[in-house]
């Protein structure tokens, strides 16, 4: 998509100050562990505790007046819905969030706290996504997809613009992948402003939908198993625009086991004193797995969120002990 980078550049200027420029923090402990110069992009410190607020805010600012009055619908396992809920609240736009009945109650309660209506559907996440889009169409509500929308992707791509400004010359950026919106946006931004930076896509081994689709060259079904990285779980909808973008921008991939994810989450708690969710652990685990390729070089890990039950986080850390 040739017009993606101009949209990212526009969003990078237009979203301030509503969207925070998150810190890029050097990690002495991870640098020593991996032999790389490791920097952590602290999206867990973004408003709503996740990068998803970026894409939601960008989509919301581009709605026409009629859509703003009518309200919007979206679908989310948590973080995207939370981002849309807050962006809608700030813009005065009513929000309905469709979610899986199995979604984290911590995230759903936070969505409701921002005034959004939550509708739970008892089905796998991909089916929830498709049903939510159908219901929104029937009700005449504009739909804000979690990843399959160029303006949502452009909002996420502002992370890439910040990375290039905060540390020019990064050798690699590690990011977890679900539907591919964040990594597509980051990759498209860095492709334009820092083409020497390699984009590393990181997946839980138990949830590989976009990875398998990239290998096949088309969206394919893949068995999705339970993973602590609930933020990246779920299939990829047919016709997803992230597939061709991700195939173009991702230069290296990592598949990580649940034990590796939990160990990375524990490492963040021990060394950085940060609670991060499973999807953030996926990216950090990908770095640890592939560190040999970047010895002595500056790399960034995107810590994409912090919205996780404390009990779940503590169980993960205990399992990794």
TrEMBL record:
<protein>
    <submittedName>
        <fullName>Threonine/serine dehydratase</fullName>
    </submittedName>
</protein>
<dbReference type="Pfam" id="PF00291">
    <property type="entry name" value="PALP"/>
</dbReference>
<keyword id="KW-0456">Lyase</keyword>
<dbReference type="InterPro" id="IPR050147">
    <property type="entry name" value="Ser/Thr_Dehydratase"/>
</dbReference>
<feature type="domain" description="Tryptophan synthase beta chain-like PALP">
    <location>
        <begin position="17"/>
        <end position="305"/>
    </location>
</feature>
<keyword id="KW-0663">Pyridoxal phosphate</keyword>
<dbReference type="InterPro" id="IPR036052">
    <property type="entry name" value="TrpB-like_PALP_sf"/>
</dbReference>
<dbReference type="InterPro" id="IPR001926">
    <property type="entry name" value="TrpB-like_PALP"/>
</dbReference>
<dbReference type="InterPro" id="IPR000634">
    <property type="entry name" value="Ser/Thr_deHydtase_PyrdxlP-BS"/>
</dbReference>
């Amino acid at each position: 998509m040739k017009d993606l980078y101009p949209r990212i550049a526009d969003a990078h200027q237009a979203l301030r100050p509503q969207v925070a420029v998150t810190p890029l923090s050097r990690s002495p402990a991870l640098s020593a562990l991996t032999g790389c110069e490791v920097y952590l992009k602290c999206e867990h410190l973004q408003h709503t505790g996740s990068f998803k607020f970026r894409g939601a805010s960008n989509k919301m600012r581009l709605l026409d007046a009629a859509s703003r009055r009518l309200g919007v619908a979206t679908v989310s396992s948590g973080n995207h819905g939370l981002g849309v809920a807050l962006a809608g609240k700030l813009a005065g736009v009513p929000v309905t969030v469709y979610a899986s009945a199995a979604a984290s109650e911590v995230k759903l309660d936070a969505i409701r706290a921002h005034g959004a209506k939550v509708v739970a559907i008892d089905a796998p996440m991909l089916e929830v996504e498709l049903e939510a889009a159908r219901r929104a169409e029937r009700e005449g509500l504009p739909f804000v997809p979690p990843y399959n929308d160029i303006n949502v992707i452009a909002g996420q791509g502002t992370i890439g613009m910040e990375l290039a400004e905060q540390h020019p010359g990064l050798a690699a950026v590690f990011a977890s992948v679900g539907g591919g919106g964040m990594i597509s946006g980051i990759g498209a931004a860095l492709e334009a402003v820092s083409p020497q930076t390699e984009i590393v896509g990181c997946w839980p081994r138990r949830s590989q939908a976009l990875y398998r689709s990239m290998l096949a060259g088309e969206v394919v079904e893949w068995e999705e198993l339970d993973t602590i990285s609930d933020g990246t779980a779920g299939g990829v909808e047919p016709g997803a625009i992230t597939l061709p973008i991700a195939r173009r921008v991702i230069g290296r991939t990592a598949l990580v086991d649940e034990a590796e994810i939990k160990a990375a989450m524990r490492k963040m708690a021990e060394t950085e004193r940060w609670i991060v969710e499973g999807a953030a652990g996926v990216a950090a685990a990908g770095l640890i797995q592939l560190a040999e390729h970047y010895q002595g070089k500056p790399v960034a890990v995107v810590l994409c969120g912090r919205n996780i039950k404390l009990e779940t986080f503590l169980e993960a850390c205990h399992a990794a002990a």
